[in-house]
Structures are given as C-alpha cells and as structure tokens.
From TrEMBL:
<feature type="domain" description="RsmI HTH">
    <location>
        <begin position="239"/>
        <end position="281"/>
    </location>
</feature>
<comment type="similarity">
    <text>Belongs to the methyltransferase superfamily. RsmI family.</text>
</comment>
<feature type="domain" description="Tetrapyrrole methylase">
    <location>
        <begin position="9"/>
        <end position="211"/>
    </location>
</feature>
<dbReference type="GO" id="GO:0005737">
    <property type="term" value="C:cytoplasm"/>
</dbReference>
<dbReference type="InterPro" id="IPR008189">
    <property type="entry name" value="rRNA_ssu_MeTfrase_I"/>
</dbReference>
<keyword id="KW-0698">rRNA processing</keyword>
<dbReference type="InterPro" id="IPR000878">
    <property type="entry name" value="4pyrrol_Mease"/>
</dbReference>
<dbReference type="GO" id="GO:0070677">
    <property type="term" value="F:rRNA (cytosine-2'-O-)-methyltransferase activity"/>
</dbReference>
<dbReference type="InterPro" id="IPR035996">
    <property type="entry name" value="4pyrrol_Methylase_sf"/>
</dbReference>
<keyword id="KW-0808">Transferase</keyword>
<dbReference type="InterPro" id="IPR014776">
    <property type="entry name" value="4pyrrole_Mease_sub2"/>
</dbReference>
<keyword id="KW-0489">Methyltransferase</keyword>
<dbReference type="InterPro" id="IPR014777">
    <property type="entry name" value="4pyrrole_Mease_sub1"/>
</dbReference>
<dbReference type="Pfam" id="PF23016">
    <property type="entry name" value="RsmI_C"/>
</dbReference>
<comment type="function">
    <text>Catalyzes the 2'-O-methylation of the ribose of cytidine 1402 (C1402) in 16S rRNA.</text>
</comment>
<keyword id="KW-0949">S-adenosyl-L-methionine</keyword>
<protein>
    <recommendedName>
        <fullName>Ribosomal RNA small subunit methyltransferase I</fullName>
        <ecNumber>2.1.1.198</ecNumber>
    </recommendedName>
</protein>
C-alpha cells in the first residue's frame, strides 16, 4: 500500500489555466491527504474531478481571507493530531499574493512541518515569456486601487535594479500603465501578459508609453493580467562614471565581485560590466 503524505501542512500549487499543468506529486498529495483545504473549494473539487482524484469521504474546507481567523485553529488542530493537511490556492502557488501566507506562518510558529509541492506560478510564467531580464526580479503584487496611493507605491520601485512583476485587474490595466509612465518612465520596456496558459493567452510587448497609449484607446481586456517591467535603462550612466566605479571596486574586490557590485548599483547587464572590468584590469 502506498504511503500517504507526511503529517505536515502541504502547500499545493495548482494550474493557473491548463488543468494538465498539475504535477504528479500534487495529485498524490490531494489523493492521500487526511484534510483538504482550499481558497476556493469549488475550484479544487473540479480540478480533482478532472484528474479522477476521489474525495473518498473527505470535505474540502474553505480557507480564505475572510474566514482565516476562525478556520486556522481547526487546521492547526488537525496538524497537532498528526494528520496531513493539503492547502491549495485558487490558482498558482500558495503564498504568492494568497491567503495561505498566514496559514503557513501560524503552522511554523506552532512547530508544525510545512512542505511545498511546487508547480504553476503566474509570476514565473510571465517572466518566461516577457522577453525581459530574469537574472534579478522583484514581485510587487497588486498596486493600490486609488491613483494617488498607486503612484506613491510605484515610485518606490523606480530605481530598483531589477525586473518588476505586478498583478493587476484588467479593469485597472489602462490606469495602471498610465501611472507607470508617470512614475517609472515612458521608455522602460514592458510586457502585458494576459490569460497565461489559457486558450486566449496574449503577450503584448513594448515601452510603457506605447502600451499605455494602446490600452487607453481600447476596451478593458478580460482575464488575469501580469505586468512585467524591465529594469531601469542603464544607458543614462556615463561610461566614464562606470569606469570610475569599477576601478574603485577593483581596489578591494575580485573582478567577478566588482562586476556584480557595479551591475547591481547601476542596473546594467552584468555580462557587459564584467567584460569592461576585465578590460580595465588588463590595462
């Protein structure tokens, strides 16, 4: 007889679109776990039906932002009894802009084991198809809904030397892009990724200005949206300034470490900075 999952809180990633993106391990956990919990019980039950995973008398317990305080003690009690608990978000990886964060933190604080069953993630899917640098990225989640708060929020990321990833409602996409143009700069490259892995998947790429103008003149799109913004344009740095930064860094650091430090400070591609560091060292 196959051994069931470990007595732990298992955070199960579920598909963001295509049902076949579920992993074999996730199906095993859903089949064998003593207790099932989900952000949306209907979604999880439907997914299990698609893949022929029986409930076998189990009830899928709802766990979301609104009932978390009342439901967590019940799930913690199951863990304390040595049971395995599987939690699945509505779609994607639990804890990424998801109510599972507080559940996992409480389990850890109470000394229970927490395991990840990794799988689909809208963040990683968007980074994969955006065509923007992925060596360093920052997931910023959802921006505030009101314009003033949203602009303040966006301005804090203006000089972060990394690709930025945001979630956004399709109804607010046009206003979000307009505020990005004001706060992050019109020339930064961007990709709007909509309905990832689904039948009507769409990826639109361009500068922030180009896509802000395009969506301002179109009806609001439908479906889930992920916005990926490239890092700040490193071309604004004077080459002489870059050389000075590298020379100073090379006084105390190895070539690789000096290039890493300058690339991180300027947002320039590391390979270009490393190549220049080699040239300066040879000179």
């Amino acid at each position: 007889m196959a051994k069931g999952p470990e007595a732990a809180l298992h955070l199960v990633a579920t598909p963001i679109g295509a049902a076949r993106d579920i992993t074999l391990r996730a199906l095993d956990i859903l089949r064998e776990a003593d207790v099932l919990a989900a952000e949306d019980t209907r979604t999880l039950r439907h997914l299990m039906e698609i893949h022929g995973v029986p409930l076998a008398g189990r009830t899928v317990l709802p766990y979301h932002d609104h009932n978390g305080p009342s439901m967590r003690p019940r799930l913690m009690a199951a863990l304390a009894d040595g049971k395995s608990v599987a939690y699945a978000s509505d779609a994607g990886t639990p804890l990424v802009a998801d109510p599972g964060f507080q559940l996992a933190r409480t389990a850890i604080e109470e000394g229970h084991v927490v395991r990840a069953a990794p799988g689909a993630s809208a963040v990683l899917a968007a980074l994969t198809v955006a065509g923007l640098p992925t060596d360093r990225f920052l997931f910023a989640g959802f921006a505030p809904q009101k314009q003033a708060a949203r602009r303040t929020f966006l301005s804090t990321f203006g000089q972060v030397p990394a690709t930025l990833v945001f979630y956004e409602s399709p109804k607010r996409l046009a206003s979000m892009l307009a505020d990005m143009a004001k706060t992050l700069g019109e020339t930064r490259h961007l990709a709007v990724c909509r309905e990832l892995t689904k039948r009507f998947e769409e990826i639109r790429r361009g500068t922030i200005c180009e896509l802000a103008e395009a969506y301002a003149n179109e009806p609001s799109p439908k479906g889930e949206v992920v916005i990926v913004v490239g890092p700040p344009d490193g071309e604004r740095h004077n080459p002489d300034d870059i050389d000075d930064m590298l020379r100073k860094a090379l006084e105390t650091l190895r070539i690789r470490d000096a290039a890493d430090a300058v690339a991180q400070a300027t947002g320039l591609p590391r390979r270009d900075v490393y190549r220049r560091a080699l040239e300066l060292k040879d000179d």
